[in-house]
Design goal:
Layout: E1 5-6, E2 9-10, H1 12-37, E3 44-49, E4 52-57, E5 64-68, E6 80-83, E7 89-93, E8 98-100, H2 116-121, E9 135-139, E10 146-152, E11 155-157, E12 166-168, E13 171-178, E14 187-197, E15 206-209, E16 216-221, E17 227-234, E18 237-245, E19 258-261, E20 267-272, E21 276-282, E22 289-295, E23 306-309, E24 315-319, E25 323-328, E26 339-343, E27 348-349, E28 352-353, E29 359-361, E30 367-369, E31 375-381, E32 393-404, E33 440-443, E34 451-455, E35 461-467, E36 473-481, E37 483-486, H3 488-491, E38 496-504, E39 509-516
Antiparallel strand pairs: 1-2, 3-4, 4-5, 6-7, 7-8, 9-10, 10-13, 11-12, 13-14, 15-16, 16-17, 17-18, 19-20, 20-21, 21-22, 23-24, 24-25, 25-26, 27-28, 29-30, 30-31, 31-32, 33-34, 34-37, 35-36, 35-38, 38-39
């Protein structure tokens, strides 16, 4: 409503109202600006090669390319780059070690993934873990200045059995970085803590914000199956929420390709050339996958493929080394919406093809592609939320100071907020040790020796997790029995009070407590 003028000007109360409105508008815009500036954890991408590196910065949502004269890390395939909420570089990793903002190995930052990764990929062939999306970093919920790095290892299994030996990840591990240490350069305070043990897909570790806007869902697929482990990351700790089997069974080559959530987190997409495009609805409150859609990508297949999604979440981009295709998730027939938007133009750099390999949606809303072999270029999709050729694929249009290849950072949408309505992670009272339907006993308690856990209903227990009072996970056990023994000497439990989370084969969690004397 406008101000009614008087013969000698606007009424004094109207002027005051206008002034008050202006102040409120200013504060609102200031608050909006502050919110927009937060959670820029993907603001910097750092790539190392042969003792130097590349620094890509997205301040003001524009790309700035820089050169790092000394980089104590080679990056390849596996990669993360983490910044603070304001967009200042903190650390980056190739799943072998962690480097700080001064491009030196962080204190206690060496030795990720003991085993095949360290003995071969990080030593003999020092180009990082061979699996794309094998590492991801999340701000630790409720722990200011701390960051959780989830990563997978690699092991040989089925050696001498039918089909011969296979190499694939068998553990999800946790490493914690505390940026409050070492004068702000950070320190690794926990490393290689086992979270999950199983044969896992060779790639595709990805996360999305919980519906409460604070916690996280972390998904990792099981090896050659249609099962997905869902790990809940909250301020109360880490728990395996569920193992859900749904949709297309991956029974062929399960590496390459990728797994992504849309920016809104309502869809989960997983693909590679042999197993096609697999689309699910995702419930950020419950963590449930539903309504699976499988689309074959034949005959446009290649063992080396990539996946990216536009900022709005409408368009999916699948690429081989030579071609980029667009799919429209809003189409009634998603498979029929497939459009070829780019074909490799034959350009070469540093003696190698500037083909299409891994891709990544950047903070500026563009999608960037690296090449399979070392070149001086990146490609871009400048308008990825436009239909068909209007998406504007520009080949070899970003010039780099040194050659780069075969890696883009793995990160979630850090800016995703909470959904409206009641949905939060459930806090279970440690006093409620027994459940009428599923009574569980922990004994002796207190104890100075081994710990016994018994499910009196006879239902098999599948996972035991032990936390200290700060919510830090001390260790995790996988089991397949209603009776479990925890050998104290195997886990170096010091005297004190511990919380125990127990999950049965149906995924029902219960909390208990134990005193170690």
């Amino acid at each position: 409503m406008g101000c009614v003028g008087h013969r000698h000007g606007p009424h004094i109360f109207c002027l005051l109202a206008m002034k008050y409105f202006s102040i409120c508008l200013f504060l609102l815009l200031l608050q909006a600006s502050s919110l927009f500036a937060q959670n820029r954890h993907d603001n910097n991408w750092v790539f190392g090669r042969l003792g130097n590196g590349i620094f890509l910065n997205f301040d003001n949502d524009s790309l700035h390319v820089g050169y790092v004269p000394e980089a104590d890390m080679r990056t390849g395939t596996a990669h993360i780059s983490m910044s603070d909420a304001e967009g200042n570089l903190l650390f980056y990793s190739n799943n072998c070690s962690i480097s700080d903002a001064q491009h030196q190995i962080m204190e206690n930052g060496e030795g990720l993934n003991p085993g095949v990764i360290q003995t071969y990929w990080c030593s003999v062939n020092p180009y990082a873990n061979p699996y794309n999306q094998s590492i991801i970093s999340l701000p630790y919920p409720g722990q200011e200045g701390k960051y959780m790095i989830f990563h997978v290892d690699s092991e040989i299994f089925n050696f001498g059995g039918p089909g011969g030996a296979y190499v694939t990840p068998k553990h999800v591990l946790l490493t914690i970085v505390d940026m409050n240490k070492n004068n702000g350069l950070g320190e690794v305070v926990d490393k290689n803590v086992q979270i999950l043990q199983d044969t896992l897909a060779g790639t595709k570790l990805i996360a999305v914000k919980h519906a409460n806007g604070r916690d996280w869902w972390l998904l990792t697929p099981e090896y050659r199956s249609n099962c997905y482990y869902k790990i809940l990351v909250s301020k109360g700790g880490i728990s395996i929420s569920d193992k859900q089997c749904i949709g297309y069974v991956w029974n062929k080559y399960d590496e390459a390709g990728g797994s992504l959530f849309t920016s809104s987190g309502d869809k989960f997409i997983r693909s590679n050339d042999m197993n096609g495009l697999n689309i699910f609805d995702f419930d950020r409150c419950t963590g449930d996958l539903s309504n699976p859609i499988h689309i074959s990508l034949a005959p446009d297949t290649n063992a080396l493929t990539g996946l990216s999604i536009s900022k709005s979440g409408r368009f999916v981009y699948f690429n081989t080394l030579k071609k980029i295709y667009q799919f429209d998730l809003q189409a009634q027939d998603i498979a029929a919406s497939k459009v070829l938007v780019a074909t490799y133009d034959g350009f070469k750099s540093a003696g190698n093809s500037t083909d299409f390999y891994y891709s990544k949606l950047a903070p500026d809303g563009k999608i960037y592609f690296c090449t399979f072999g070392p070149t001086y270029y990146l490609h871009t999709i400048n308008q990825p939320d436009s239909v068909g050729l209007a998406c504007q694929v520009l080949q070899h249009n970003v010039i780099l100071p040194i050659t780069h290849y075969a890696t883009m950072p793995n990160s979630p949408n850090y800016q995703l907020g909470a959904l409206p309505g009641p949905c939060d992670t459930i806090s279970v009272s440690t006093n409620d040790l027994k459940d009428v339907k599923n009574p569980i006993e922990i004994f002796p308690n207190p104890t100075s020796g081994d710990i016994q856990i018994r499910n009196e209903s006879g239902v098999e227990l599948r996972q035991i997790q032990v936390f200290n009072l700060t919510g830090k996970l001390i260790f995790s056990l996988q089991c397949n029995s209603p009776n479990v023994s925890i050998i104290k000497s195997n886990h170096h439990l010091e005297k004190g009070f511990y919380l125990i989370k127990i999950s049965d084969k149906y995924g029902h969690p219960q909390m208990g407590k134990i005193i170690i004397e």
